[in-house]
Amino acid sequence: MSVKDMIAERAAEALDEYSVINLGIGIPTLVANYLDKEKYYLHTENGLLGVTSVAEEDIDPNIVNAGKQPVGEAVGASYFHSADSFGMIRGAHVDVAILGVLQVDEAGRVANWAIPGKDIIGVGGAMDLLVGAKKVIITTNHTAKDGSPKFLKECTFPITSTRPVDMIITDLAVFERKGDGFELIELMGEATLEEVAEKTEADYTVSEALKRSVGQ
């Protein structure tokens, strides 16, 4: 299993059945491959409730998600105008948004739409989802391509919203928001507490259950 699939599978485990879920571009789109299409309702900003998968055997080349990827269509799927889709988001009718990020900080703020000095296409639905979704889960590699941490004390790129995210899932760790900070609740793959600490700039606590499980 690839690192991206490992992250996506763990994100799928965090979802409640029969919830309405919006999947962002990148790793989040893979989450659909780990869900029972009859028990989850996947929403996309361009106007479809009932996305099933991005797996090759399930897709319809004539139907795309907000990231312009061909996707599958569930039985009973509904189509609507993009304005209505954003109305669902802004009206708090989306239970969970799963988003990728460039950076996330210890206050839970996300930067995922612009890199200073580089051309941008636009923010898309990220701002709306961060404000309107009832729960936000971040899926990302723990470090950037140059090895620098992506979980920071404070974002250095323009933030997308001041709303704090609820969960961060990386290739090394799973963090949950507890009060005003984040708690490390799980290690991913072969990661260790020491490796997570070394590759994380943000402050966080370690759950007692995880400490016991690794013998600390």
Low-confidence stretches: none
- The helix/strand series, from N terminus to C terminus, equals HEHEEEEEHEEEHEEEEEHEH
Give, in spatial order, the strands making up the sheet with the most strands. Answer: 6-3-2-1-7-10-12-13-14-15
Question: So, CATH architecture?
Answer: 3-Layer(aba) Sandwich
**How many strands?**
15
GO molecular function: succinyl-CoA:3-oxo-acid CoA-transferase activity
EC number: 2.8.3.5
Keywords: Transferase
Family: Belongs to the 3-oxoacid CoA-transferase subunit B family.
Structure description:
It is a single chain. This protein is an alpha/beta fold. The protein has a single domain, classed as Glutaconate Coenzyme A-transferase (3-Layer(aba) Sandwich), CATH 3.40.1080.10. The chain contains 6 helices and 15 strands. The strands form 3 sheets. It has a 10-stranded mixed beta sheet, with helices on both faces. The model has no long low-confidence stretch (mean pLDDT 91).
For the structure shown, list the relevant keywords.
alpha/beta; Glutaconate Coenzyme A-transferase; ten-stranded mixed sheet; 15 strands; 28% strand; NagB/RpiA_transferase-like; 3-oxoacid_CoA-transf_B
Structure, briefly:
With 216 residues, this protein is of the alpha/beta class. The chain is built from six helices and 15 strands. Its EC number is 2.8.3.5.
Topology:
Layout: H1 3-13, E1 20-23, H2 27-30, E2 41-44, E3 48-51, E4 60-64, E5 70-71, E6 73-79, H3 82-90, E7 96-99, E8 103-105, E9 110-111, H4 126-132, E10 135-139, E11 151-152, E12 167-169, E13 173-178, E14 181-187, H5 193-198, E15 205-206, H6 208-213
Parallel strand pairs: 1-2, 1-7, 7-10, 8-11, 10-12, 14-15
Antiparallel strand pairs: 2-3, 3-6, 4-5, 8-9, 12-13, 13-14
